[in-house]
Structures are given as C-alpha cells and as structure tokens.
Amino acid sequence: MFTGIVTALGEVTAVERRDRLARLTIDSSYDAAGVDIGASVAHDGVCLTVVSKAGRASGMTHVVEVAAESLALTSMASLKAGDRVNLERSLRVGDELGGHIVQGHVDGLGEVLSVRRDGEGWRLKIKPPAEIEHLIAQKGSIAISGVSLTVNEVDAEGFGVLIIPHTWAVTTLSKLQPGDKVNLEADMMARYAARLVEARRMP
To answer: pTM of the predicted model, to two decimals?
Structure first.
C-alpha cells in the first residue's frame, strides 16, 4: 500500500531488456540501510520489488524487475537512462496517510491533453482510457504517475487536476507535455463500488 505522496525522485541509470522482462537501475536519495531486498517501492505509481541495492555517497542505487504485463500496461516500457521517476516507499503501520490509499496497481495509461498555468499552480487535463472513465469523479482522488491528486473537473474530453507549486517542484509532473502518457490508478473505493454495482446487475 502507498499514499501517493512522493518521497524521492529517482533517476534511471540503466535499462536492461530481457525476454519479457526489463531490469531498471535507479539512483535515489534513499538510505540503502533502510530499504530491504524484497521491499516494495512505487515507481511512477507502479509497485515494483527491489531485487538488489548498493549504497552510494548521496543515497542508494537499486534494481527492480518489470514483468511483461507491467511493461504492456504502464509507462515503464518507455523509460530510458536519464529519465526521472517518482518514488514512494510502501506504507508502514502508524505512518501518516497524507494522500489516499494507493495500491500501485495501474489501471491504464492516460494521455495529457493540456498543461497550463493557473494562478500560482498548474492545471493538467488528461484523457483516461475508456475502461476507467466511470471511476473518475469530481472531488474524487486519483493517482497520476504515483502522485495523489484531487479531480477538479470531469467532462466529455477527460478530467482536470490542479497542481500546487510544491508538488510541481518535487515530482516529474512538471516535465509533462501534451501527448505524454501517464500511469493512472483510480480510487480504490470507486473501483470496488463499481464492482458491487456490476455484480448486482448480473442475473
């Protein structure tokens, strides 16, 4: 489980393509002593397992393996050396739930329609995949590239979110351009509510 509150920016330093698998090497400011082998870390909203790690002067280097399904359904397949990724350690019992409950299970890729300044912040308009449109509601929560955000508007084109200056500065959202793809995870409660409604309609 995660909260959608990014705790570090990682930099991809190597991508190794294997048969139906990719190994990503990532540098971050995390302390290697505090991250166990086998730990779950969200990378742009995708829950991945740390398979190796090493300390370095300004943090740590770790390796994760991305399976075929995640490569097909998320932005992980497009990552290359030099790219930045939003990182979040898994939620521990007693931690502050500052965002909303995020599982790290991406529902699909959204397309950025527009990026514009809105006062001190920035407004993003995103077109979600058709299969999760019904799970996105005004004032509801959504994770975009692993960042917990509130949906400000929903219309026939997609949905909009407002990014405050702090979030803009400490995440990869500031690098987005129209046409970019982003990982979307709908609110877990909305997902289960929709499933219950669907089950009740079944004969």
So the answer is: 0.91
